[in-house]
Amino acid sequence: MLVLLGAVGFGANALRDWLLSPSTLPVRVVRVEGAGHDVSPAQVRRIVAPMLGGGFFGVDLNAVAKALTAIPWVYRANVQRRWPDTLLIRLQPQQPFAYWGKDALLNRQGEVFKPPLSTFPKGLPSLDGPQGKESELMQHYREASTLFSADGLQVIALSEDARRAYRLWFANGIELVIGRDWDMRRMARLAAVYARVLAPRAKRIDRIDLRYPNGFAVAWKHPKTDGATAPAKE
């Protein structure tokens, strides 16, 4: 009986070694799905090739996935075996939401990633603020964009400085000084009167300051013509 069990154990080990041998079941095909912005199937295969030496059963799927998610434009990688000789790689590309600072992007999950500057897409809004405030600034940007879109104003940039003071910029060049509190009520007051009071003179407005309890101040591009900066009532 002991001899029989030993023979069975030896046979199982031999079968395992045979299956794990790279020469028995080599990976012959690497199929790539979901390659997107600045990530090509050829690039993926070059990264994966040195990791296939263990054969079909020996390849470390987690290690392959980790190597691929190190590509800046790859958000997630799913790696699976497909019998008898194929490695299936499904990539989920990064979905950029905004520029973050001067050298990074913010994805739709509120996470910072840093691809080469030459690969940055055009036309994204610009967000900037302290580390850890990415998701909060994304939410503020969405709130402001929704509020002011009714007045035909497009928010193109939003920043929070070291003193936690907020500023945003519209596509027409107007800067909006918000202050240290993200106060949607004050912004709503401005939105309520913008079309009627300020839109006809928007080209001459340099800055609007919301740091007033009952109104806002307008700074004109040509003070000599329009008068000095003065509070504007609701």
UniProtKB/TrEMBL annotation:
Main location as per UniProt: membrane
Q: Does the keyword Transmembrane apply?
A: yes
Does the keyword Cell division feature in the UniProt annotation? yes
Protein topology in the membrane? Single-pass type II membrane protein
Q: Where is the POTRA domain?
A: 25-94
HAMAP family, A to Z: FtsQ_subfam
Quaternary structure, from the entry: Part of a complex composed of FtsB, FtsL and FtsQ.
Q: What protein am I looking at?
A: Cell division protein FtsQ
Q: Which organism is it from?
A: Acidihalobacter prosperus
